[in-house]
Amino acid sequence: MAAVLDAPTRYFDADVETMPRERLAELQLQRLRETVRRAHDHVPLHRQRMQAAGVAPDDLRTLADLQRLPFTVKTDLRDHYPFGMFACPLEGLTRLHASSGTTGKPTVVGYTKGDLETWAALMARSLYCAGARPGDVIHNAYGYGLFTGGLGAHYGAERLGGVVVPMSGGSTERQIALITDFKARVLCCTPSYALAIVEVAEQMGVDLRQSALRVGMFGAEPWSQAMRLEIESRMGLQAIDNYGLSEVMGPGVAVECTHQDGMHGWEDHFLFEVLDPETLKPMPEGEAGELVITTLSKQALPMLRYRTRDITRVTTQRCACGRTHLRILRVAGRSDDMLIIRGVNVYPSQIESVLVGRPGIAPHYQLVVQRHGSLDEVALEVEALPSVSVDGYAAVAHDVAHHIKSMIGISTTVQVLAPGSIARSQGKAVRVRDLRPK
Ligand SMILES: [Zn+2]
C-alpha cells in the first residue's frame, strides 16, 4: 500500500531527512561532544564513570571514540531516583514523565522547554514520514498521563499541523463513533489496541475500511508482520511501526516510511549502535544485537550509550524514499522478554507471527510459562473464531501446536478458548504470564 508522493511534499524537513551521511556524521560528532561535555560537567554519575574509564570529553575526536564511553542502564535511573541523572536544576525543567514501574521505583525522565520542542518536531517528522499530513484529523488513542505515548503523539500531531483528537485509551465504542464522525485519517495507538478497536467495530457493524482512516501510527510494543497485515486488511489503512522509549525521549525516535522497510532512526538527534549483548562489541552491519542509543540534543537528561535491551538489526543502505537516516529493522523484542524454552530462545512476537492468520483462531493469545521440575513448559492460550464449533477446538489446537513446533522448534500445549475469553489490551498488551519461580 506504499504511497508515492511528489518530491516537494515527500519530507517534513527535506534538508535533514536527506542529508548526505558524511554530513550527518559531522553533525553527530559535534553534538556528541556537546552532549558528553554536558553529561560530564552536570551529572556526577557520568563524570565518575568516565573518570573510572579514563576518558575525558575532549578525548572524543571521531565517532568511533564513542566506544570508549561507559554505558547507561535502566537501573541507573532507578538508583538515582528521582532526579539524580538530570543535567539541569529542577526549576529548569518544563515537564516530568515516569514509567509505570512494575517492580521497585519508577524511572523518572525530565524535559526542558527546548527538549519538548525537539520532541514535538521529531514526532511531527515521524508522523509525516508515516503518511500523516497537515490538516489531517489525528485520533490519538495512546494513553495520556505519565506514559510518554499520549502527550508525545499529541504535541507532535499539533506541531505537524494536524487536528488532534486527544482521546486516550479506553471507551472503545466511543472511540469508534468519534473516528467515524470526525473523519479521522490517522490513528495513533498500540497495535494490540488497534486490533481491539477493529474487533469491537466489526461487532457494532461498523466497517472501518469504509472510514477515512488511512494511516495507523502503531508502536510501544513489539508486533509481528502477520499482525500488521491482519490490522491493515481489517482497518483499511497502512499500519506504520514506530519506536521510542522514554529513557531517551519517548515516541519519535524511529519510524517507518510508507515503504515499510525498516524504521528510520533520526540520526541528527540520536546515535545508534548495535552491540553483541554479551561482549558489548559492535556487530557487523545487518547482524542482530542489542540496540544502544546515545542522545545528541537532550538538555535535561543526556543519555550516554543507553542499553535498550531491544534486539534488532540496522542498515545504512539508502531507502527507496530517499531518506538517508539508517533503518532499524523490526524489533523482535526486548532481551528481557525473551523466553528460553528448553534451550531455544523465543520471542512472543515469533509465536504471534505463527498464530496470526491461522485458520480457526482469532489474533489474540497469551503465553503461560511454567516450570515442571527443571523443565520449562509453555502453554499457549488462543481463541477460536465464532465460526468454529466446540467440537472443532481439538483439531485447531493440534494445528497450532504443529505449526509452532515446525516453525519455531518448541513444543507447546495449546488450549483453544471460546471467542472473547482473552482480555483485550487498551494500551500495551500483556502477552506472557511467566509463572516460573524467580
Ligand atoms: Zn524510507
Explain what this protein looks like in three dimensions.
This protein has 438 residues and is an alpha/beta fold. It is 30% helix and 24% strand. The protein is built from 11 helices and 21 strands. The strands form 5 sheets. It has a 9-stranded mixed β-sheet with strand order 4-3-5-6-7-8-9-14-13. α2 crosses α3. The longest helix has 22 residues. The radius of gyration is 22 Å and the shape is globular. The site of zinc ion (ZN) has 6 residues, from loops.
Short description:
The chain is 30% helix and 24% strand. The chain has 438 residues and is α/β, with parallel strands linked by helices.
Report the sheet-strand fraction: 15-25%
Which molecules are bound besides the chains? zinc ion
The major β-sheet equals: 9 strands, mixed
Number of contiguous helices: 11
What helical percentage do the residues reach?
25-40%
Task: Give me the secondary-structure topology.
Blueprint: H1 14-17, H2 21-42, H3 44-53, H4 74-79, E1 95-98, E2 108-111, H5 113-130, E3 137-140, H6 148-160, E4 163-166, H7 172-181, E5 186-189, H8 191-204, E6 215-219, H9 225-235, E7 238-245, E8 250-256, E9 263-265, E10 270-275, E11 289-295, E12 306-312, E13 314-315, E14 327-328, E15 333-334, E16 339-341, E17 344-346, H10 348-355, E18 361-372, E19 375-384, H11 393-407, E20 412-417, E21 432-434
Parallel strand pairs: 3-4, 3-5, 5-6, 6-7, 18-21, 19-20
Antiparallel strand pairs: 1-2, 7-8, 8-9, 9-14, 10-11, 11-12, 12-15, 13-14, 16-17, 18-19
Helix pairs in contact: 2-3, 5-6, 7-8, 8-9
The protein binds zinc ion.
